[in-house]
Amino acid sequence: MKTKSLIFLSFITVLISCELVDNKFTIINNSPNLISYYFTKDSTGKLANEFYSTYYYTTSNGKIPKEFYFIQSGNKGTIETLGEWDTDTSSFDNGTAYIYIIDSINIGREDTLTMNKLIRKYSVTIDYLKAKNWVFEVK
After folding, report:
1. What's the CATH number where 77 sits?
2. Which residues make beta-bridge pairs with 124?
3. How do strand 105-107 and strand 56-59 relate by DSSP bridges?
4. 60: which residues sit within 8 A by CB, 6+ positions away?
5. Which residue range(s) make up the domain with 95?
6. pLDDT one-digit tens code per residue, 62-101
7. Is 56 among the domain residues?
8. In a domain, 14, yes or no
9. pTM for this one?
């Protein structure tokens, strides 16, 4: 009986600790370039520029490499959220978020990055993305 209770309790613990990750938000790169994307609720572009200004995050434990998201021409990438995109209000400001697309990045000396060209800043709403079945196309 103890073994069955322990197994049942372990099963319930695993179920509770699993968080839903929704990765249905897809970006399709139909441009001729390799692109990098940055998704944010910041409309000013300041966070995107700061993100692409260095290769590392500086923390009290040292430097941590940033994770850049690239999509080859003709391919797609996904943006994940904990929970479900349909109910995720934390990634949007009053229902709107922004996608910044960069077409090339150069890694220079001392791990600094140069953003060569900001192709476009896209403004997207939850309603627009729902209507497009969470697929966003870059041309």
Report:
1. 2.60.40
2. 97
3. unpaired
4. none
5. 20-138
6. 888 778 888 999 999 999 998 899 888 889 999 999 998 8
7. yes
8. no
9. 0.73
Structure tokens at 130: 């729902």
Total domain count for the chain? 1
- Residue 1 inside a domain? The answer is no
Q: Residue 76 falls within a domain, yes or no?
A: yes
Dihedral sign for Cα 49, 136, 22, 126, please. Answer: positive
Both structure tokens of 3: 């073994």
Residues 130, 132: Cα–Cα separation, whole Å? 5
DSSP collapsed to 3 states, the chain: CHHHHHHHHHHHHHHHHCCCEEEEEEEEECCCCCEEEEEECCCCCHHHHHHCCECEEEECCEEEECCCCEECCCCEEEEEEECCHHHCCCCCECCEEEEEEECCEEECHHHEEEECCEEEEEEEEHHHHHHCCCEEEEC
